[in-house]
Write a structure and sequence with these properties.
This protein is an alpha/beta fold. 31% of the residues lie in helices and 17% in strands. It contains 11 helices and 12 strands. The two termini are 23 Å apart. The structure holds S-adenosylmethionine (SAM) and iron/sulfur cluster (SF4). The site of S-adenosylmethionine (SAM) has 19 residues, from strand 3, strand 5 and helix 11.
């Protein structure tokens, strides 16, 4: 379905849980998340039902995210159920990679096509500082496993924060020389009201590029499949690519083809917007599929042409990233 700005909305991001086994300082408070109980969170059969309805209005791609999707018991059952929906042609996941290696074979058997790993540092101590608890070797093992399995494209999401990991930009770029990895540098976004946020922590795309260009020349690269908002470049003889997701300095809303379903069953047409449609309640009230499809249409019709996150540092944005589904 096309929205009012001629964008073809065919991609649904589903947050399957608020919970996570890490506590990245920009995403989740140290004490963890509020307990919604079983009734507050969409059950897998409800997610599958909503994905099926979403296909009626043109959704063809699904990404599972969270929170951390792999902390969900039986996540492979959900993947298998979604994979059985004939109109869905792509199922992807965004994960922190802590649990992926041990589950990779069954995830793929269930129907997972692609995976994005979030990794903000290649240094054990910095990684531990950012995530408050993670073991980086588990993430490395997961990336190796995905490479061994021939999963493609494999994207690495790296949130760049001034004074924390901006000194590692070149190390991340180096990985794309010898490995078919697509490193995407993400501008740090003030989503939620965590005390960690400060405007001077944002390291912009221009600053990142300048850092890279002191060592490497960047050439335009073909877009990496997956419909993401990143723009891609490559270094000479690199077999991977370097991408930029610059929500703050250069919003990418013109290419946005996605809507989002939160773990508590709210449909959102914009990551940064405040508007939500309560599909969990609609399911509870046994609303029929035509009416549910109409609710999806309403979200798409009301999708804003762009976000205004950069005006006011997310002061209005109380929902943290783990609550929306990054
Ligand atoms: N737990 C999974 C993971 O970390 O990949 C999936 C959920 S996480 C919320 C999805 C992505 O959002 C991660 O790549 C994370 O780095 C990014 N993210 C979370 N909070 C962010 C923020 N404030 N600014 C920029 N990116 C953020
Ligand atoms: Fe967990 Fe992902 Fe948020 Fe980190 S970014 S706390 S891994 S949900």
């Amino acid at each position: 379905m096309f929205d009012n700005y001629a964008r073809n909305i065919n991609y649904l991001r589903v947050s399957v849980t608020n919970r996570c086994n890490l506590r990245c300082k920009y995403c989740m408070p140290e004490e963890g998340v509020e307990d919604h109980g079983h009734d507050g969170i969409l059950r897998f059969e409800e997610i599958e039902h909503l994905v099926r309805v979403a296909t009626q209005i043109g959704v063809r791609k699904v990404r599972l995210t969270g929170g951390e999707p792999l902390v969900c018991k039986n996540i492979t059952n959900l993947i298998a159920d979604i994979a059985r929906i004939p109109q869905i042609d792509d199922i992807a996941m965004t994960t922190n990679g802590i649990l992926f290696a041990d589950m990779a074979d069954e995830l793929r058997r269930a129907g997972l096509n692609r995976v994005n790993f979030s990794l903000d540092s290649l240094n054990q101590e910095t990684f531990r500082y950012i995530t408050s608890r993670g073991d980086i070797n588990r993430v490395f093992r997961s990336i190796d496993k995905a490479l061994d399995m021939g999963m493609a494209p494999i994207k690495i999401n790296t949130v760049v924060m001034k004074g924390i990991n901006d000194n590692e930009i070149i190390d991340f770029v180096k990985m794309t020389k010898t490995m078919p990895l697509h490193v995407r540098f993400i501008e740090f976004m003030p989503i939620g009201d965590l005390p960690f946020f400060k405007t001077d922590q944002v390291f912009t795309e221009t600053e990142i590029k300048k850092t890279i260009e002191q060592k490497y020349e960047l050439h335009n690269a073909a877009m990496v499949s997956g419909n993401g908002p990143a723009r891609y470049f490559a270094i000479k003889d690199g077999i991977g690519t370097v991408g930029f997701i610059s929500a703050m300095s250069n919003h990418f809303c013109g290419q946005c083809n996605r809507i989002r379903l939160t773990a508590d069953g709210k449909l959102r047409s914009c990551l940064f917007g405040k508007q939500e449609i309560n599909l969990k309640l609609a399911l509870h009230n046994r609303v029929n599929d035509d009416k549910l499809a109409e609710m999806f249409c309403k979200a798409i019709r009301e999708k804003p042409n762009r976000h205004h996150m950069d005006e006011g540092w997310g002061a209005d944005n109380r929902r943290k990233m783990y609550q929306i589904g990054g």
